[in-house]
Amino acid sequence: MITLWHYLAVSAALFGIGLVGFLTRRNLITMFLCAEMMLQAVAVNFVAFARHHGNLHGQVFVLFILAVAACEAGVALALILMLYRRGKTLDASAWQTLRELGVPPAVDTDPLPVETRGEEPRLADAGVRPEPAGEEAARV
Amino acid sequence: MSDPIGLALAILGLPLAAAVLAALLSWTKLAKAAHVPLVVACAAAAVLGVMLLLKVGEGPDYRFVSTPVTWFSAGHLTVNFTVTVDPLSSVMLAMIAFVSTWIAIFSAGYMHGDGGYGRYFAVMSLFVFSMCGLVLANNFLLLVAFWEGVGLCSYLLVGYYFEKPSAASAARKAFLVTRIGDTGFLLGIFLLWKMGNWNTDLTALFDYLKDHPPDQAELTTACLLLFCGAVGKSAQFPLYVWLPDAMEGPTPVSALIHAATMVTAGVYLLARCAPLFVMSPDAQAVVAWAGGVTALLAAFLALAQTDLKRVLAYSTVSQLGYMFLALGTGGAVSPAFAVTAAMFHLFTHAFFKALLFLSAGSVMHAMGGVIDVRKFGGLRRLMPVTHLTFLCGAAALAGVPLLSGFWSKDLILESLTGAGASGRPYATGYFVLAVVAFLTAFLTAFYTFRAYFLTFWGPERVPEEAGHHAHESPAVMTIPLVVLAAGALFAGAVAEPFTHWFSNFLGHTPSLHQAEPAEHHFDWTTAGVGTALVVAGIGLAFLWYRKGTEGEPAGLKPAFALSRNKLYVDEVYEAAVVRPAGVLAFLSKALDGFLDALARLIAAVPRFVGDLARPVQNGLVQFYALSMALGLAVFLTFVVFRVAR
Amino acid sequence: MNPFSLNPTQLAGGQIALAVLLAVVGFAALLPRPVGRRVGVGVASLVAAAAVLGVFLYTTFGSPSPDVLGTVLFYLFSAGALGFGAVLVTQRNPARGAIAFAFVVLSTCGLFLLLAAPFLMAATVIIYAGAIVVTFLFVLMLSHAGGPSDENDRSREPLFGSLAGFAFTGLVLFTLYLTRVEATAGESAHRLPVPVVTADEREKLADALTRIDAAAAGLDGDLTTNRFERLQKFEALRDAVSAVVGASPDEGGVRDGSVRARLEKAAATPGVPAVLYREDEQARGVLRRAATVRELNWATYKAVNDNLSGAKPDGAAAKAELRRLRDEVLLLAGAADLPARNVGNLGYLLYTDHLLAVELAGTLLLVATVGAVAIAHRRRGSDGPTATPKPPTPHHPA
């Protein structure tokens, strides 16, 4: 039999994962999604309690959470858009001018890995007869 | 509008409205019309002032006090906004408004095209407002407020050309030197406040002191402290040094503020406080001696000045000393007579000195800003109107018989000889002062006509700076000159010697009222000696300067050099006051530096601690969120395990 | 099972600590960074952490359950939510993160369904579908097309961040454990509201249903033979139903069944706390239904008895009677703890008890809309190529 406590435990774990993402990830959009995930965890909590108490008040609260999440999504995405327009980056750490005077800026020391990508396939230029290559030449 | 208080408040309100309007106009495109509010307000105020004069003269009630409105109060100290109208203040008001009107009109021509046109007229309006308030105030602290108001306007107008370092420093000097006197003035007010049953209203205070005669020594102290303020504001010895420097301001300002109105505030203050001074012969003697010394000293200093405006400035100082001479005789003759003499001279002086300054301004206007009498001469054909009006003013100032200056000067000399013969204490001193006054009259006639001859006689010389300006001033400037010249010629004769209108009117002032009215007759001896001295002075000046160049005998050169160098008073002040103050300031600065270092040391400790904690504030929002979450986790751990136990 | 001779609290605490530790290690290893990312270790740690969590749940709260399907679904949806959540957090590519978030939402919607909240399930799916599509658009619009970037390939303090996040989870789990211990200890077990129909009663009613079916099957054929056995079956059936809903007055005095006893009579019984008494709409509905079943049970028995004892037994009529009873019993057995008309009741609640909150939420939405428009509005002159301020990159402090 699945009890209230099972749901509470799962929602706590979900909340923890969301919190970790919010604290560590630097992409503003990912941070926003993690915050939404924390809201989902809280919603599960409410619904489980509604079921437990045998009334619908918990579900009503979840409806309000949905409303607030919608508001949050609108405003947060607008803010992210503004920040992106100003800085041309989604990095939350790019905005650190609020620091105390005289404190050196946080700098990422490790270089980013260089992505090595093979040559992308290209079509031959139009109007030029393709040069046969390899054994194709033998067949021609 | 028949209520005298209502009239007085209207007179007070008009210039204030003009000041606001002019200030607003100066921000708009109508800045060129900034003179209109002042002229209209002053003209209206002059008309109202005459109405007020007639109203007050009707009697039988000669003192009107407005209902006191509390301005502020703290403990015993209650300061009311209240004004009083009596013959003394109504005469002052009418005079101020009248002279201001013509000077305002003159200014419109004189300042034409100047960059700070709106500012000039706004501050002038503010000055007229403050001066009217000073005259009307019936409360010592209210009076101080207006007193400082006129001081502020004086500062702003002396420093009108603030780009010039000399003007800026002159403004500062004027403000600071008068401030020395103001300190004594405030102390005197608070002493009187204590003596007078914690009253600060003038009328209530005087009434109380009349019924409860105070300690003589205390009263003398209070009177002398009040006199300090008057000395500063009216440029008496030893605080007269600011007035000649104040000529850096535009000439109409010198005419209005530093000749006709503001500098007479000290005289007016003493006249208003005459009931107090009457009770203290010692203070009266001090006032008289200070006036005498100033009159003679300033007349001597005016002898050899080459700057036309400075001659007039020293002359103003000297004439103010004359007024104080008269005020100082109040106890020896009768207060009403002394005050009448002083106020009458103030009244006539306002006309002819304003006239002289405006004429000098007209000359300066034509000469392209040059005012050194050595650089020009023989202007009488070039500027006929200015020449004639200057001559009127000079003659009135010198005391040529039948002109207004003659009558008022005669009244003062009479009060002095009367005091010398009264047999009261200090009678001998008053006799000496009478001699001083006669000597001053001679010097006055001499230096006035020296300046006149040097400027207008001899061959025509015009400085290069004048350029094409060298012609008679426009009508907007000459008409005020003519009007004021008429005043200089006839105001004295009309007001006093035949009708005694002025003395009767002023005698009605309740604070001066006495059981037996003052009797005085025209003293032919005094008048004769005075006239002889004046004629001698003018004759000497004609002898030496009629060619328009300096022609004094070689034997007198050292004396003239001494005069030109102002008796080295500024240098003495520099050595005696400024240098020691500089040393003191250096010591204070050193001590201050030590204290600062101590304070910085104390401040360094939290700064050091802050430096340790500062890297936490690194501006990364996620770092902040992480700190918050970790802190909350620690806190919740504590809570959970406390609950579990 | 307990090799270290720990007491239960220490055991639970140890399980929680182990799960948290494993989760922290897993996330610290998996979070994106330029060097030192250990995918294998991370995944293994996370799987182990999930396993430890499952064990903890089973040993602490789990009990032998007849509801196999519900249990399986619960674990399925939970694993889905947590797993896709982990993917969202650790995935470098934000577009894939958004897809993972979609699966998280679907999984929580499954949990909603298990918790009898169908309307919420639908609403969440609809709203988040829109939100995710919009977010996806943003990702496509704003992300750098190729190559590693600061925001996607770096994490801010991975170890401490994971620690802070899972510290909360651990604390909540431990608190849950403590409350569970408290709730199951003695009298205080009754503090929580009781279900309207317990599992035990449900089993009894299911048993009664099988009997009804059997009795109905026995009505086929010649009805004049084996009357006594048939009647005995009917009696057994009647008693089985009576055990749950009680007996009718005609049966020799009112006797309450277990449903009524639990929900209503408890308050009158001395020694039992009054908190047992349930008086909400749902309980009243179940009581009404139980009373209906009780009356119908007796009436059906009498009617069938008369019918079969008569000269001409009518099998079709008796079957009809039995079917009516069967429907009612089925309804009673299916009576849930929550109202059946989820949407209607939610609406009723919203517009009665929470009217002010609804208005406020509407206002909030309006304000947020206006705010979003105002913020994102592209002002003239502020955003041209020349007016764009230099991005404050960390390498070049402003």
Give structural notes.
The complex is a heterotrimer of chains A (140), B (645) and C (398). By secondary structure, chain A is mainly alpha-helical. Chain A has a domain at 4-92: Orthogonal Bundle (Helix Hairpins). Chain A has 4 helices and no strands. Chain B is globular, with a radius of gyration of 29 Å. Chain C has 3 domains: 8-178; 199-337, Four Helix Bundle (Hemerythrin (Met), subunit A) (Up-down Bundle), CATH 1.20.120; 342-375. Chain C has 14 helices and 2 strands. In chain C, a hairpin with a 7-residue loop joins strand 1 (246-247) and strand 2 (255-256). Chains in contact: A-B, A-C, B-C. Chains A and C meet through helix 1, helix 2 and helix 3 of A and helix 2, helix 3, helix 4, helix 5 and helix 6 of C.
Low-confidence stretches of chain A: none
Domains of chain C (count) = 3
Give the biggest sheet of chain C.
2 strands, antiparallel
Q: Segments of chain C where pLDDT lies below 50 for 5+ residues?
A: 185-192, 271-277, 383-398
Name the CATH architecture of the domain at 4-92 in chain A: Orthogonal Bundle
- Greatest contact between two chains: A-C, 92 and 120 residues
Kindly report how far apart the N and C termini of chain C lie.
61 Å
Helix content of chain C: 55-70%
Which whole number gives the mean pLDDT of chain C? Answer: 79
